[in-house]
Amino acid sequence: MSLLPVSTPRTADALTQQRLIRQLNYDSLTLENLYTQLSTGQRVNTLSDDPSAAISAVSLQASQEYSATMLRNAQSAEGYLNVTDTVSATIDNALIEAQGTIIAGAQDPLGDAERDAYAQSLSLTIDRLITAANQSYRGHYVLGGAIDQTAPLAREEDFVVWSGTSAVQSTQISKDWLLETGINAQQSLGVGASIASSVDLDAAVTRDTPLSKLYGGKGVVPSVIRASGGDGWTDIDLRAAKTVGDLQDALNSVSLEGRDLSVTLSATGISVDYADGLGGTLSIDDVGEGKTADLLGIRNPQGYNGLPLVSHNLNPAITGAVKLTDVAGGAGIDVSAGIQIDQGSRTFTVDLSLAETIEDVVVAINLSGADVKASINQSTGKLQIAGLADGVDYSIGENGGNAAAQLGLRTATTATKLSELNRGLGFEATGGTDLTISRTDGSELEIDVDGASTIADVIDRINNHVDNLGPNAVTASLRTDGNGIQLQSIAGTSTLTVGQPAGSSLGEALGLIAPGSTETTAIDEAGNAVIRGSDYKPVETGSTLDTLLRMQTAIQAGDIPEITRLAPRMDQHLQQSVQMRAEVGSRVQNLDNVRQQTEELSIELAAQLSNQIDADFASVISEMTARQQAMQASLQVTAQISQLTVLNFL
């Protein structure tokens, strides 16, 4: 506490009064500050009170506000996770009940009324699952994905359509932790599974190819390289290059000892040479930590490699901007005929006559009206199609050309294994003749597929059969409309038929003979006898709902083989659901731990902030009492020296 001494008699009156007034002002300001500390409870109320403490307090308050925000986020995330856990529990319980119903419905024999009752029970289970998946919380569908406008699942006729997204909602619960607070129907129910994925479309390198899309999307980061013709190095700055064309232009502008460089493009990469083509020495190396030349495969620091310097296979990733004329190694593909998508009993034609790029194909498929979603898989660079409808068969085939095959989207090809027929159950073989074909000239072909493994093998055995000669030869091939095998011959004196002997189910498995029949008769088309088989490899989405819908149909029909085929899937679906619920539980536990740590941090921050700016009430009161006494003394002295009677001057 600073106090000015009382003036001595030798001090001038003016100076004494001035010093007393200053003392009174100081005491008044100090008391005012002490009163403020008492009323606010804070020692530091402005930056000037204690600059060092104030700066620390600002930082601590910012940390407190961030911690409070994280706690609010944690509370919100806990709400979402609790609702998600409830939905997951509902799904688990419904699947457990469904398994019991399936076991009861698989008994044989059962009456029609019993089968109908079990089928109806499964139908109610499906409705429960749809209701659970469509449950909303705070205006957000729990299993709809991060962005949803409508309920993710809807029942239409005898199938269920998913319209949600694969994105998952997340919440920031700490500085470095973005916690997923939900799951989507893909994760819990397996909806939206891929039904077709293209082969490697093998995009060619063009001037428009982005450097970031080379090597399947891993990319090449442009840097500074240097080149030499044998007489000193010349730096070439490629950092501004975005495409292969930019790289080509930059190198083409370089002249080494009067000789211009020339970069040419091939379907797989680039080659660097002198424009005059006269050979010589050409050294190329990276500068500093750059790796552009090395990654491209044109690094030749000692100049030992002969010209031209040919790059590695740059393998550009497939993107929406890739032109159809630039795929297939630059040969291009013709998809103008379009493709067909069969969804149950409905057929959708995808018009690709105006398609120029991969993105055009994606858009055309998505606008076809079929319940599918086409996209480009960024990790594999392949075109893929997801089936959004559960409970129906999908088939992607041709529309009079070979667009589906060229895109790699045809679901039934010659590479299909015979073990995949009949939905993976294969077929019954006799060990001898498995298929008979009566030609239009009356002769008969006996087809033995022993040792055959694919559809291509079966087609070859028909076309190359020793007795399949002459003008009435039967030609087997894949259909050019939709999917399936086609048998064709010129019309003759007899009818073209295909049959299967007793003990064989190959004809049915190949789609050439309808279930329950023993043979198929050809139809006449412009003087040709034609048999068009059905799709021998229909595709299922394989989701939980898809299995339940098929199981409902199988139980109602008393189809024991189908029930037996589908039953193992139920264990997988339940396991998938249980795993997702366990994942949600793990997130809740992690959230609790983070929240507890954040709460403890908030308490510690509050304590540190209190140490910096809060007032010590005992100290404040003690100082205020002393200051009041000092002020009273100053006032008394002032009163005494300010008296103007004659006695004061004696």
TrEMBL record:
Keyword Aminoacyl-tRNA synthetase attached: no
Compartments where located: Bacterial flagellum; Secreted
Keywords attached to this entry: Bacterial flagellum, Cell projection, Cilium, Flagellum
GO molecular function annotations of the record: structural molecule activity
Major location (coarse): other
Name under which the protein is recorded: Flagellar hook-associated protein FlgL
Family annotation (Pfam families): Flagellin_IN (PF07196), Flagellin_N (PF00669)
Any Gene Ontology CC annotation: bacterial-type flagellum
Limits of the Flagellin N-terminal domain: 19-145
Signal peptide: none
